[in-house]
């Protein structure tokens, strides 16, 4: 198993700066998720860790050893790609065995490791097939299997679930969490989906435009975001942001999550009209047009129903409201 | 709906059959006349051979005058070796151009593609001087070098375009599995480029096989003659042995036809690979 340290990593493609001054510590056995909007540099950072891309500046350390000058194959990492990237002309068995053969692992060891990975991922009946004869979910399991047989210090996942349908995505997510417990491996996982980040990670790294916005445990980021970006990115439905001046506050912006915005028929801080209602079963999202405050979302966990255009009152829970300054930094 | 579909299919087939007939007609005329007597060739050029007009004089002439077995051998060696070199070097430079970021990449690609627009024959005099200086005149090597140079631009252009479409993730997966850049090229990229390679092979092979110009200038000796050049012995200034010319040309069709059949399965996949996924 392995720890990872990034020190001052920057990356530019020509004149475009894609990553700036990234510092990060991933502990042995940790599950770290890089999350952020598309194009913020997550994949580039992961590829730098893998050695597929050279950083313009900074050091990559695996288990305390600088690996900048080591080829990807010599970094004891394994990577699972969004597009699976299985070798199309090789069988499932050979896809998994190729890396070990290249490393001149003894035949018996290769067979044992492939068998073990196949058992773990229920791939036994598929070992003789080619990638073209597999479904999307099966391909993804083979790609994970190919990573598992290498027994790497570090697993790298680049949006492994984004090509799967919703049901399969939940299953595979659970599978990855189980795998991680079984292998007790260090994993780094890239996604643009905050739900995946929240459910899998013990450490989330929120990236935006090539910089780290915040690092923390999932509930830490949810409860205690460092700035507007993280507050808005983590949590679904998205946090409401209200103009502070309009509420008579010193802060530029007040943030309040939909589940902390109390909705009442009789009284509250300000009023609005129901403009749309989403019933999700266990919870209901109510969209309220609140005059100058704009369109706000409230979330209730009862089965109370509201009519369109109904007049309602809203109150942000004072204990849960978050205040931000004009630059978007959190005021505490 | 079904009726309109059938009508459309009928129209398409009619057009394709007409085109096939037009394209094959000269070949057909050559082949039937190769089996006729001289008188019948001129008397009724479009008539198929009958028992009275059937005559193998042409083939006899081809097999007795001149060493056609040797000419065929020369043509095959020159074509196949040039083809192999064009495919190998074409694919390698295409890989470099499509895979690696380096200064001048685009410029180099344009420079290499320039040869598609400028015919190599413009440089004939310089090429001949070069061959004389290097004592390569009247060798098959001279022809192979020139044909390799002639075939490379188109091959690099087509293959680079094709290789750009191969997913980066696949190559990166290979790198993580410890494949060297050579192994990635030969074991991952080349197998996936097979349809494009077949396309390039056909487009490269036919002009080389048919060429008369460079064999005539660079390798006209008896030992290095190619089939197309060899067939010229029957074309005299005053008398032309048409039977023999037609027979030689008919025989010359066979090897390329065989090579084409080998590549054609791949070729069709190459043409349709973008359309059907
Ligand atoms: N090879 C490259 N050349 C130039 N720009 C690149 C290259 N790879 C990525 N980029 C740019 O870097 C930025 C970050 O890309 P990426 O790391 O793939 O983002 P993410 O994975 O977060 O969606 C994007 O703006 C992208 O256009
Ligand atoms: Mg990405």
Automatic annotation (TrEMBL), chain A:
Keyword line: ATP-binding, Nucleotide-binding, Transport
Entries under CDD domains matching the protein: ABC_MalK_N
Gene Ontology annotations for the cellular component aspect, listed alphabetically: ATP-binding cassette (ABC) transporter complex, substrate-binding subunit-containing; maltose transport complex
Keyword Nucleotide-binding tagged: yes
Pfam family, one: TOBE_2
An MF annotation (GO) of this entry: ATP hydrolysis activity
SMART domains per UniProt: AAA (SM00382)
Keyword Lipid metabolism (UniProt): no
InterPro entries: AAA+_ATPase, ABC_transporter-like_ATP-bd, ABC_transporter-like_CS, ABC_transpr_MalK-like, ABC_transpr_MalK/UgpC-like, Mo/tungstate-bd_C_term_dom, NA-bd_OB-fold, P-loop_NTPase
Domain ABC transporter: 4-234
Family from the record: Belongs to the ABC transporter superfamily.
Name of this protein: ABC transporter ATP-binding protein
Organism: Amaricoccus solimangrovi
TrEMBL record, chain B:
Gene Ontology CC terms, in alphabetical order: plasma membrane
Keywords on record: Cell membrane, Membrane, Transmembrane, Transmembrane helix, Transport
Alphabetical list of InterPro entries matching this protein: BP-dep_ABC_trans_perm, MetI-like, MetI-like_sf
Transmembrane portions of the chain: 12-35, 76-97, 109-132, 144-163, 184-209, 244-263
Topology of this chain in the membrane: Multi-pass membrane protein
Annotated compartments: Cell membrane
Keyword Transport found: yes
Gene3D superfamilies hit by this protein: MetI-like (1.10.3720.10)
Any one GO BP annotation for this protein: transmembrane transport
A Pfam family it matches: BPD_transp_1
Signal sequence annotation: none
Domain ABC transmembrane type-1: 72-263
Keyword DNA damage: no
Family: Belongs to the binding-protein-dependent transport system permease family.
Name the record gives this protein: Carbohydrate ABC transporter permease
Taxonomic lineage from the root: Bacteria, Pseudomonadati, Pseudomonadota, Alphaproteobacteria, Rhodobacterales
């Amino acid at each position: 198993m392995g720890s990872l340290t990034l020190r001052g990593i920057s990356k530019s493609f020509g004149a475009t700066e894609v990553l700036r001054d990234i510092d990060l510590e991933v502990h042995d056995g940790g599950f770290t998720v890089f999350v952020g909007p598309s194009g913020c540099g997550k994949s580039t950072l992961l590829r730098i860790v893998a050695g597929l891309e050279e950083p313009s500046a900074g050091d990559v350390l695996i288990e305390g050893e600088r690996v900048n000058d080591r080829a990807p194959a010599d970094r004891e990492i394994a990577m699972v790609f969004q597009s699976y990237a299985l070798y199309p002309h090789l069988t499932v068995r050979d896809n998994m065995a190729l890396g070990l053969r290249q490393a001149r692992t003894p035949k018996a060891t290769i067979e044992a490791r492939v068998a073990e990975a196949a058992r773990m991922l229920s791939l036994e009946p598929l070992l003789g097939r080619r990638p073209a004869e597999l479904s999307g979910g099966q391909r993804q399991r083979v790609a994970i299997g190919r990573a598992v047989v290498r027994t790497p210090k570090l697993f790298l996942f680049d949006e492994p679930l984004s090509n799967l349908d919703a049901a399969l995505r939940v299953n595979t997510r659970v599978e990855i969490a189980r795998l991680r417990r079984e292998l007790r491996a260090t994993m780094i996982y890239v996604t643009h989906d905050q739900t995946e980040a929240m459910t899998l990670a013990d450490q989330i790294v929120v990236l935006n435009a090539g910089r780290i916005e915040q690092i923390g445990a999932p509930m830490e980021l949810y409860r205690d975001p460092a700035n507007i970006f993280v507050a808005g990115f983590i949590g679904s439905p998205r946090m409401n942001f209200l103009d502070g001046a309009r509420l008579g506050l010193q802060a530029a912006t007040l943030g309040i999550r939909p589940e902390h915005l109390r909705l009442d028929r009789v009284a509250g801080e300000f009023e609005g009209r129901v403009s749309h209602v989403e019933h999700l079963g266990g919870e209901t999202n109510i969209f309220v047009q609140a005059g100058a405050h704009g369109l706000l979302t409230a979330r209730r966990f009862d089965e109370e129903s509201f009519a369109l255009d109904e007049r309602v009152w809203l109150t942000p829970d004072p204990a849960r409201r978050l205040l931000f300054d004009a630059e978007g930094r959190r005021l505490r | 709906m079904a009726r309109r579909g059938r009508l459309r299919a009928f129209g398409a087939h009619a057009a394709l059959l007409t085109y096939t007939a037009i394209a094959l007609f000269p070949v057909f005329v050559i082949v039937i006349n190769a089996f006729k007597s001289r008188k019948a060739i001129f008397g009724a050029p479009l008539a198929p051979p009958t028992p009275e007009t059937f005559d193998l004089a042409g083939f006899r002439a081809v097999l007795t005058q001149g060493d056609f077995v040797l000419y065929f051998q020369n043509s095959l060696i020159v074509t196949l070796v040039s083809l192999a070199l064009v495919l190998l070097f074409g694919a390698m430079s295409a890989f470099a151009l499509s895979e690696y970021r380096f200064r001048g990449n685009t410029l180099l690609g344009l420079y290499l593609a320039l040869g598609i627009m400028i015919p190599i024959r413009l440089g004939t005099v310089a090429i001949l001087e070069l061959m004389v200086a290097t004592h390569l005149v009247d060798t098959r090597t001279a022809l192979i070098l020139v044909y390799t140079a002639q075939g490379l631009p188109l091959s690099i252009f087509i293959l680079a375009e094709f290789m750009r479409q191969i997913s980066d993730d696949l190559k990166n997966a290979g790198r993580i599995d410890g494949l060297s850049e050579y192994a990635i090229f030969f074991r991952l990229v080349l197998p996936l480029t097979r349809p494009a390679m077949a396309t390039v092979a056909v487009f490269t092979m036919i002009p080389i096989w048919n060429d008369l110009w460079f064999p005539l200038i660079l390798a006209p000796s008896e030992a290095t003659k190619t089939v197309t050049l060899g067939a010229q012995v029957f074309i005299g200034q005053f008398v032309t042995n048409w039977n023999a010319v037609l027979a030689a040309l008919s025989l010359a069709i066979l090897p390329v036809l065989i090579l084409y059949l080998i590549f054609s399965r791949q070729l069709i996949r190459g043409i349709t690979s973008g359309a059907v996924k």
